[in-house]
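Notes from the 1:1 (GR / supervisor)

We went over the backlog. Supervisor wanted to see one worked example end to end before approving the batch request, so GR pasted a single chain during the call. The sequence is below; no edits were made to it. Supervisor asked that the structure be written out right there so they could see what the output format looks like.
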Amino acid sequence: MRSYIIHMRGDQKRQGNVRRLLNILPKAQIVDAVLGQDALATTVIAPGTHHQPRYPFALGPGEVGCFLSHRQCWKNIIATDAEYALIAEDDLSVDPSIWPDVLDLINTHASADTYIRLPVKDRERPAAIVAEREKAKLFLPRMIGLQTVCQVVGRNAAARLLAASDVLDRPVDTFVQMHWATGQVVHTIYPNGLREMTEELGGSTIQKKTRAGNFATREIKRLIYRARIGARPQKL
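Structure output shown during the call:
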């Protein structure tokens, strides 16, 4: 299995962690992160309206860059003869004590049609357990969680995701949630021993500040959107 680490070259705060990931992840290489501000002029964006339900927030440059960086990884997967590959963001931390069990689940069950999330937070509830290795569990979540810190993507899955994201209308993690729009089943491995080191490495590169007066409005919109996503669970 090949691994792609999304990293903004020149980000000195994250270089040490990237070196660690290059040693830990299988056949790892760096994929240059896309600078969203530079890509805005050449990227087709339909704010919140290309897929349903409508996404209620505008895309920021950091979110555009993050999405395009993942799309580049999907293209890389398709360009190889490998069935699947691991994609990691450069703030990932790996616990070596459980990682072999996670890799065993991946190598036993992954295929060209696979999308397996390896989230850093326990926020998904299983519709079905597929397999277990010691503490690690591979399962089908009812509602797909957020964040894209680490995932395994098959060649056919990458092609489906690329075809459905020719127009960007929401962040990449909310896009992946929409299995009805992408045609892609999403599985999860958790526990997995992974952790996000965002704060230790200088904070998020895509987080947007919200004015105090807009906070309540944004939270109401977020709750409504989550309810609409939750109304379309993955099923057996």
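Supervisor's comment: Helices lie at 12-24, 36-39, 61-79, 99-109, 155-164, 172-177, 179-182, 215-230.
Batch request approved.
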